[in-house]
Amino acid sequence: MAVILIVEDELFIRQNAEWAMEDLGHSTLVAMDLAEALVHLSASRHIDALFVDIRLSELPFGGYDVANQAIVLRPGLRVLYTSGGLLTAEMSGGFVGGGQFLQKPYSAEQLGESVGALLH
Q: For tag attachment on the chain, is the N or C end more exposed, with fewer CB atoms within 10 Å?
């Protein structure tokens, strides 16, 4: 199916997202922060989409920083944002790469639907 880069700083959530994506038939790459994400994004391997937490604790603008740098390195990359907070107009105004949003907590089914919509 697709190769998805998951960027999430909380181990439990990152692992659950990885397992759910793999159960859906996708290949995954995982990163806990911007530095790890950049290693994957700078490699020659194909990546179809970025799944990123908006509120990564280490960055001033969290997942927006990751997504913005990812789009520079990989124009056309699709981005699925996630957060435990409600989506606001201010939040969605910073979306790049198709800018889909999935609120936490999400089910594997919701994740599958969101990834499907993002990729098609």
A: C
- The C-alpha atoms of residue 120 and residue 115 are separated, in whole angstroms, by 9
The tokens for 18 are 């990885």
> In whole angstroms, what is the distance from residue 18 CA to residue 26 CA?
9
Residues 10 and 33: their CA atoms lie apart, in Å, by: 10
Predicted pLDDT of residue 60: 63
Inter-residue contact 48 to 119 (CB < 8 Å): yes
H or E stretch at 53 = strand 49-53
Q: Is 59 a residue whose pLDDT tops 70? A: no
User: Domain range holding 7?
Assistant: 3-119
Which CATH number does the domain housing residue 18 bear? 3.40.50.2300
Return the number of other C-beta atoms located less than 10 Å from residue 13's C-beta: 17
Structural domain count, the chain = 1
82 CB contacts (<8 Å, ≥6 apart)? 8, 51, 52, 53, 54, 63, 101, 102, 103, 104, 106
